[in-house]
Design a protein that fits this description.
single chain; alpha/beta; Rossmann fold; Elongation Factor Tu (Ef-tu), domain 3; NADPH-cytochrome p450 Reductase, Chain A, domain 3; 4 domains; 36% helix; 18% strand; binds NADP nicotinamide-adenine-dinucleotide phosphate; Flavoprot_Pyr_Nucl_cyt_Rdtase; flavin adenine dinucleotide binding; FMN binding; NADPH_Cyt_P450_Rdtase_alpha; endoplasmic reticulum
């Protein structure tokens, strides 16, 4: 570089040596040399800096193809750009809140508003005060409460923002619909908090907080709330409902003619071919295909199937702690998929793409596209649960019999008669979409519209039944296969448990069965100090996390740690039928890991004996453990009855042995909860 070849002729003129120099007259004066050096210096500088920038350009160019286009993180700018005045945010874990948001955003144009639905995780929520910049604007929040009063994963940052910031929301109009479940202690905690906090910050509530109860009829709660919410919006903004009830498609069907099968999704959740080339980290969008190492039946008798599965996660870099949950993506029953195809006269192997008509939307497709109808119905769509009312409403247009059309529309309405009909004909009868199509022969929707309307098939969560310390390469599941007869004479089969049940360790063709999974962290944790006593209450499959806890306490003991009392209350129907993990539990007991094993056999005698009856029997000892020995209490299993009954039993113990009044007892247990000494992992 420094040889500067093009300067050479000047320095060594070819004429130089041959031409006789003029005597006394030097060839270059000092000034010449100075100017010359300056030029050379500048040229060198220019050249070097040019080289430098040349080096950086290819670097930059190389990067461009892998940089994904910047997503719009400003919902305000997006609303302005797309001329919207209503944004509907969802805090969603299982997809229901997201679905409700989509419905509200879509409904908006019937009520003179222009809506868009948005994931708070994708946008800068600190811009909320700026909503006032948009005329007649409104922010609606559909907030699900997860776990023990927690925000959903995608609403965590927004929740933190609400808690930590005192920004002025003056001029911001809002409304909140909460999605919760009454069987849980913190019913609709997130909905309540959002509603209260937005008002505290100066926002204006346009309509009252809606509180959906999934233990009752969430769909009905939402429809009823919506029915009142829209008139309130119209009144507030002085707009009129258009009364236009026609169905509006959100996606257009595209059937590609030139198909490269390598570009067609076959069940992946995110990246195309992610099941063929697996790359950590593994999460909801990128599940790990774990091989099924063990799949055995746990119960010795009875008409149910209780199972223990072990998923091999070696090499996945997945870590877990006992108490965490494993999420599993199930696959729908082939026979239901085929039957839907048959009824709709559809070629299920057609490759299609459903493309969002709203080009500005972050959600380009309702599920990964392009794909086939078969893949969509098998991996991406929920075809087992009763369809929601909006699905029935939109499908009504395809019923050729006016009576069917009328029935479907009525069920989607907020009239008491319609609600009653939806409750009995759809929910109580557990009619899934196939049953609806079968029982209404005049209903013949197009398959692409049906695929647009059905909600996404969600991952199922199970409490991990092993310890990550003892089995770092294995995740265990303990579950009962869900199967029952419905009032229409059909058999309802739980999607995930039936699919898991049929997972054989090695298939006929020698392949190992796999399960797409990822781990979700939980708060259900053993005490930090191993010497603290633990009392675990887990009837039925509620035993799951405690198998992990016991393995871990045993492991600590082996390490020479001072491990405190470890007590289990397990409950099952009969000793000879469903005493899950009997052998393992007795071995833990023999090894001194399990210091007390209490089992309530509910059906081995005349009257019922449940875990809470045994708790009551040991009330003095339990009170001592709780009140003086810093014991941690854990409850896992059924939320609806068991967890509540057990909690009431603890109130009784605090009253009877601790001498507290009922109010004091309730406050006492609440305090234990806030201290993390009374933990629940319950399901309904
Ligand atoms: P199950 O076998 O039906 O019931 C277990 C025992 O609990 C039976 O002896 C039952 O007695 C008894 N029981 C019924 N009502 C009770 C009450 N109010 N209080 C105390 N005990 C009561 O249980 P399961 O089929 O395993 O289901 C248990 C629940 O745990 C399910 O809701 C499940 O979803 C949930 N769960 C599952 C996991 C998992 O990872 N797989 C984890 C946590 C929780 P009777 O039937 O004789 O009345």
């Amino acid at each position: 570089v420094l040889s500067l070849p093009w300067l050479q002729p000047v320095l060594t003129s070819p004429e130089g040596p041959d031409v006789a120099p003029v005597e006394e007259e030097p060839l270059f004066t000092n000034l010449d040399i100075f100017l010359f050096s300056l030029i050379v210096g500048l040229l060198v500088y220019w050249f070097l800096s040019r080289k430098k920038s040349e080096e950086t350009i290819p670097e930059f160019k190389r990067l461009t193809p892998v940089v994904t286009p910047q997503r719009e993180t400003s919902f305000i700018e997006k609303m302005k750009k797309t001329n919207r005045n209503m944004v509907v945010f969802y805090g969603s874990q299982t997809g229901t809140a997201e679905e409700f948001c989509g419905r509200l955003a879509k409904d908006a144009q019937r009520y003179g508003m222009r809506g868009m639905s948005a994931d708070p995780e994708e946008y800068d929520m600190s811009e909320l005060p700026r909503l006032a910049e948009i005329d007649n604007s409104l922010a609606v929040f559909c907030m699900a409460t997860y776990g023990e009063g927690d925000p959903t994963d995608n609403a965590q940052d927004f929740y933190d923002w609400m808690q930590e910031n005192g920004e002025d929301l003056k001029g911001v109009n809002f409304a909140v619909f909460g999605l919760g479940n009454k069987t849980y202690e913190h019913f609709n905690a997130m909905g309540k908090y959002t509603d209260k906090r937005l008002e505290e910050l100066g926002g204006k509530r346009i309509y009252d907080l809606g509180m959906g109860d999934d233990d009752g009829n969430l769909e009905e709660d939402f429809v009823s709330w919506k029915e009142q919410f829209w008139p309130a919006v119209c009144e507030h903004f002085g707009v009129e409902a258009t009364g236009d009830d026609t169905s509006i498609r959100q996606y257009e069907l595209v059937v590609p003619t030139d198909i490269n099968m390598n570009k067609v999704y076959t069940g992946e959740m995110g990246r195309l071919k992610s099941f063929e080339t697996q790359k950590p980290p593994f999460d909801a969008k990128n599940p790990y295909l774990a091989t099924v190492a063990v799949n055995r039946q746990l119960n010795q008798a009875g008409d149910r199937h209780l199972m223990h599965l072990e998923l091999d996660i070696s090499g996945s870099k997945i870590r877990y702690d006992s108490g965490d949950h494993v999420a599993v993506y199930p696959v729908n029953d082939v026979s239901i998929v085929n039957r839907i195809g048959q009824i709709l006269d559809a070629d299920l192997d057609t490759v299609i793409s459903l493309n969002n008509l709203d080009e500005e939307s972050n959600k380009k497709h309702p599920f990964p596209c392009p794909t086939t109808y078969r893949t969509a119905l098998t991996h991406y769509l929920d075809i087992t649960n009763p369809p929601r009312t909006n699905v029935l409403f939109e499908l009504a247009q395809y019923a050729t019999d006016p009576k069917d059309q009328d029935t479907l529309r009525k069920m989607a309405s907020a009239s008491p008669e319609g609600k009653g009909l939806y409750q009995s004909w759809v929910l109580d009868a557990q009619r899934n979409i196939l049953a609806v199509l079968e029982d209404m022969p005049s209903l013949h929707p197009t398959i692409d519209h049906l695929c647009e309307l059905l909600p996404r098939l969600q991952a199922r969560y199970y409490s991990i039944a092993s310890s990550g310390k003892v089995y770092p390469t294995m995740v265990s599941i303990c579950a009962v296969v869900v199967e029952f007869q419905t009032s229409t004479g059909r058999t309802f089969k739980g999607v995930a448990t039936n699919w898991l049940k049929n997972k054989v360790v090695v298939t006929d063709n020698g392949h190992k069965a796999t399960v797409p999974m990822y781990v979700r962290k939980s708060q259900f944790r053993l005490p930090f100090k191993a010497s603290n006593p633990v009392v675990m209450i887990g009837p039925g499959t509620g035993i799951a996390p405690f198998m992990g806890f016991l393995q871990e306490r045993g492991w600590m003991k082996e390490q020479g740690k001072d491990v405190g009392e470890t007590i289990l209350y397990f409950g099952c129907r009969r000793r000879n039928e469903d005493f899950l993990y009997q052998q393992e539990l007795e071995e833990f007991e023999k090894a001194g890991v399990l210091t007390q094993l209490n089992v309530a056999f509910s059906r081995d005698q005349e009257g019922k004996v449940y875990v809470q009856h045994l708790l009551k029997k040991n009330k003095e000892h339990l009170w001592k453990l709780i009140h003086t020995d810093n014991a941690h209490i854990y409850i896992c299993g059924d939320a609806r009855n068991m967890a509540r009954d057990v909690q009431n039993t603890f109130y009784d113990i605090a009253e009877e042995v601790g001498g507290l009044t009922h109010t004091q007892a309730v406050a006492y247990i609440k305090k234990l909860m806030t201290k993390g000494r009374y933990s629940l992992d319950v399901w309904s």
